[in-house]
Amino acid sequence: MTYKIIGDSCLDLTEEMKQDERYQMIPLTLQVGSVQIVDDETFDQKAFLKLVRACPECPKTACPSPEMFKEAYEAADADAVFVITLSGHLSGSQNCAVLAKKLYQEEMAERGLEENMKKILVIDSLSASSGQLNLAMFIRDLCEAGLSFEEVSKKALAYRDEMETYFVLESLDTLRKNGRLSGLQAFFATALNIKPVMGSDKGRIIKLDQARGISKALQKMCDIAVKKAGDTSGKRAVVCHVNHFERARFVKEELEKRAAFKEIVITNAAGVATVYANDGGIVLAI
């Protein structure tokens, strides 16, 4: 089975994966004041962060159109297409990807091309960033092992349901101002340098713990993640950072102190995660 893995642009691919034709990102649009930026391969993280710092308005994002997903399905040179989107609680990407699948299938049926129709699975990651990448790598491994579309789909959804996502940010203000905390108050103890450890409950953001200082918060995040993960010997951890590789490496080393993983992958955020995680933010998925 040939396959293609498509994500919205919060699927924070590694540099190596960006060069691999099996992967494709459908860009969201980023808005900072009156400036609109397409979150594609031209995204310049450092320039974007500078723009955000200079703008009094909170940055925003807009999801891709269904047509953009549909065109990607049509163009995919593969038997099977696996689509991984941001949590439906955080973005409209999921709905657009599902609608695109429906439109693609209807059009193929109208043209009498059912036999040529690609198999498509659209997965709400119930996560973002590292979680989407973790899921993409899991699907890749299954496809490379020769499993059928149905087997990959079943295992991928089960893996999604077992996966946990955590993050520690310098500030929750962007998430709060854009309504992504679903009523959860942004942490206010900035003056005390208290950093919350955040997690996900079926795609909704929740607070798990807190610590004074970013390093202690990251260590606490690793404690929680390893305890929750149980036996990690066959598991992959994915760490995404926003413009702070040293902090991501610190998390990797802290995880290695606590457990043995099959692999720990570090990646840098594209535009969407940069908007919401802000400069220095860390997102972990296991």
UniProtKB/TrEMBL annotation:
SUPFAM superfamilies linked to this entry: DAK1/DegV-like
Superkingdom of source: Bacteria
GO molecular function: lipid binding
Keywords: Lipid-binding
InterPro entries noted in UniProt: DegV, DegV_C, DegV_domain_contain
Family annotation (PANTHER family): DEGV DOMAIN-CONTAINING PROTEIN DR_1986-RELATED, FATTY ACID-BINDING PROTEIN TM_1468
Protein name, as recorded: DegV family protein
Species of origin: Clostridium porci
